[in-house]
Write a structure and sequence with these properties.
By secondary structure, the protein is of the alpha/beta class. It is about 50% helix and about 15% strand. The N and C termini lie far apart (about 60 Å). The structure holds nicotinamide-adenine-dinucleotide.
Length: about 300
């Protein structure tokens, strides 16, 4: 069993840490938010009152933080307090460049870095069924496997440092674009007198079949578990989709890759966040498509 320091006990980190406790690991946690700390303590996490107190003598440090800025700041604070050869596993979604910078910092201080962002959302974090996309040296990935197995349905070694974050933003760029494409199809279908169910029955068994349609269908009815049936109560929020599309576009610009649909999707989610706020599920973007909100100028 491992002694794990878990830093960032929010909506994702809290349940991930709780699953490690359930699996028998010793988990020390830190988060500046009182609410997150209280929930984690109830789940058996040994919550400490500082980053240093949480990481001292830990064999592994897992971070689940809001952004790359938080990650790099956190590494700066903790690296001097770690025991030599600590496994540093970061599951936050951050820019590829930040993941590589964090890995360089960790290696420079004598530790083993792993970037391992996740897909599967809060429900996957609770159920221990996340997908981890891993960027690391093979030895560090192998060291992380027993912990990943507790939190994951699947983990994929994508390559060296940064490769996990690269896979995550490429995947989410497709997701953001495909949700808009599916939404436009339902808007057009309705205007042509087609029922949502008829379009779903055809598209879900034809060449338009995709996750945004068959798992996360943005209209209520055809897929009873999709957020559309719950007034788009958050699963994966518009704010997080917007964040990931910005990371994808920044990476595309840095690497001179033209991603026209990804760029347009980013603009539309940004506009939608101004209309609807960042907190509902991102599939609610269909409401703006159906209302014709994107046909209007932003100032209207
Ligand atoms: P969250 O805001 O609920 O949790 C982040 C936590 O980090 C907060 O409780 C915050 O207080 C804490 N924190 C900030 N600075 C810290 C520090 N220096 N040390 C310790 N804790 C610190 O966010 P979340 O939804 O749990 O997301 C975490 C990460 O996972 C993000 O990078 C997000 O993009 C990614 N992600 C989220 C989802 C999702 O559905 N929520 C899905 C996939 C990936």
């Amino acid at each position: 069993m491992n002694t794990v320091a878990f830093l960032g006990l929010g909506r994702m980190g809290g349940p991930m840490a709780a699953n490690l406790v359930k699996a028998g690991h010793t988990v020390r946690g830190y988060d500046p938010e009182h609410k997150a700390v209280d929930i984690a303590a109830e789940a058996g996490v040994d919550v400490r009152d500082s980053l240093t107190a949480a990481v001292t003598d830990a064999e592994t440090v897992i971070t689940m933080l809001p952004s790359g800025k938080h990650l790099l700041g956190c590494y700066q604070d903790i690296l001097p307090s770690l025991r030599p050869g600590t496994l540093l596993l970061d599951s936050s979604t951050v820019a590829v460049a930040d993941a590589r910078a964090a890995a360089d910092m960790a290696r420079g201080a004598g530790h083993e870095p792993v970037d391992a962002p996740v897909s599967g959302g809060v429900s996957g974090a609770r159920a221990g069924t996340l997908t981890f996309m891993v960027g690391a040296e093979t030895s560090a990935y192998e060291r992380a496997i027993p912990l990943l197995d507790v939190m994951a349905a699947k983990h994929i070694h994508c390559g060296a440092a940064g490769a996990g974050q690269a896979a995550k933003i490429c995947n989410n760029m497709v997701l953001g674009v495909s949700m808009i494409a599916v939404s436009e199809a339902f808007a057009l279908g309705r205007s042509l007198g087609l029922s949502d169910q008829a379009l779903y029955d055809v598209a879900s068994t034809s060449s338009a079949q995709c996750w945004s349609l068959t798992t996360y269908c943005p209209v209520p009815g055809p897929v009873p578990t999709s957020p559309a049936n719950n007034d788009y109560g958050a699963g994966f929020t518009t704010g997080l989709m917007s964040k990931d599309l910005h990371l994808a576009q920044a990476a595309a610009e840095d690497n001179d890759v033209s991603t026209a649909l990804g760029a347009h999707a980013m603009e539309l989610y940004d506009r939608f966040a101004k209309i609807d706020g960042p907190h509902r599920d991102f599939s609610a973007i269909i409401t703006a498509v159906i209302d014709g909100a994107f046909a209007k100028k932003e100032s209207e």
